[in-house]
């Protein structure tokens, strides 16, 4: 399984709570994490499937946030 990182507009614990059901639906619980200490608010997702990367971006947009793949 591959780790993919995204720069996001998720800013706080409340934002994480908002996106949790969306990301759990996209990649499953315990398969993602947001580093709120990072200036880029990096979302790390454990998936090796390219279609899942697009789904993560789509689900975050549905929740009202933006994500851009990095690295």
From TrEMBL:
InterPro entries, sorted: HMA_dom_sf
Gene3D superfamilies per the UniProt record, alphabetical: 3.30.70.100
Molecular function in Gene Ontology: metal ion binding
Highest taxon in the source lineage: Bacteria
This protein's name: Heavy metal transport/detoxification protein
Lineage, broadest ranks: Bacteria, Pseudomonadati, Bacteroidota, Chitinophagia, Chitinophagales
């Amino acid at each position: 399984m591959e780790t993919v990182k995204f720069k996001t507009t998720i800013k706080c614990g409340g934002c994480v709570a908002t996106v949790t059901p969306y990301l759990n639906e996209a990649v499953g619980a315990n398969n993602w994490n947001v580093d709120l200490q990072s200036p880029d608010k990096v979302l790390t997702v454990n998936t090796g499937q390219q279609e899942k990367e697009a789904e993560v971006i789509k689900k975050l947009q549905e929740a009202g946030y933006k994500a851009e793949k990095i690295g």
